[in-house]
Design goal:
The chain has helices at 40-47, 65-78, 87-96, 106-116, 126-164, 175-185, 188-209, 212-218, 226-236, 245-252, 275-288, 296-311, 326-362; strands at residues 8-12, 26-30, 33-37, 55-59, 81-85, 122-123, 316-318, 321-323. By secondary structure, it is α/β, with parallel strands linked by helices. It folds into 3 domains: 4-124, Nucleotidyltransferase, domain 5 (2-Layer Sandwich); 126-210, no CATH class; 212-363, no CATH class. The strands form 2 sheets. A 6-stranded mixed β-sheet has the order 3-2-1-4-5-6. It has a two-stranded antiparallel ribbon with strand order 7-8. Helix 7 crosses helix 9.
Amino acid sequence: MSEKSCRIIGIQHRIKMSAEGEARPTIVHISGKSTKLATEEDEAKFLSTITKGDTVAMALGGSGDYLAFSASRIADSVGATVLRVPPFVLAKERTERAFAKNKEDDAALLAIMAKEVPNLFYPVLDRDRDIILLRECFRARIDAMKARMACEQRIRQRVIGQIFCRTDGIFPEGGIEKTYDAAKANDAILQAVLKEEAKRDNDLKKACESSYVYQQVFGPIAGMGPALAGRIIASIVDIRRFEKESSFLKYCGVHVLADGAFARRRNGQIANWSGECRQALYLFVTQQAQRRPGTQWGDYLRKMKENLRERHPEPVEVAGVKKYTPIHIQKMASWRTATRLAEHIFREWWKCEREMEEVRQVA
């Protein structure tokens, strides 16, 4: 086989423009040489050059998921391979190799790792593409939902303006809300947006139901439907990004700080967790308070509230702030339940990945 058909390609994918307007091209390293891909069009052209025998090495997760999806599809069709390595493994290798102290050298480092320690990588398989596609479906659903809300707001403001600016000074029968409902029902743009949102909801439902993660990890959780599960899965994408449970909890924003308090936004501190994942976990837990006894997480939440009330039977005032009121107890119990749920997801998802990896190795 020729040298060209046995290439090892390291790719460091980057968002093409930083928030400050700085150009950040994707870097491709082949045979000791690095090339910069300044646009998505350049990336698409490069992908078309993947040939039989090539090995493409990338980092797992992050902005490169779409590129990994497309590269793996092409690789499958021509007989090449796309491998991805967890970020924490890449970080360790970076510290142990003298030339790779700077992240700018990641493309070259990935190529060397794929050659020397390929066992540290995971191949991109159908199940990985399913989750990447699920994330795309979730984002499309959020865009459609925001479009619907914006359209409804415009209609409402238009109705209010028309009513208060009537030249005859007479308010219509039924008031603003009735007029608003009628305007929504007759607005062609809103009806099209509602149809689009329904389609996106259905797409997300199908993507979740076909995903092994949803089937084995989230589906068995009572009350965890595609909307919430999709939000969590789309935020995490791949549990193999996280080496430790503590790192996963920090990413989800349900970890406990050094002072014993739960993480929350504070002035002067960076909230470096996933807002989508944190919100989804909290929404799920708060919904459990309304569920009948007999569900795992609803019962856990109620038990946690009982334990906290036993420990703090009466509200107290600390530094001018009231603590252990019913609302405070509810929030404490909810966050603790969210933490336990995140721990459950981490363990079950990793268990699922290990089992599937064992099956793949045997095959």
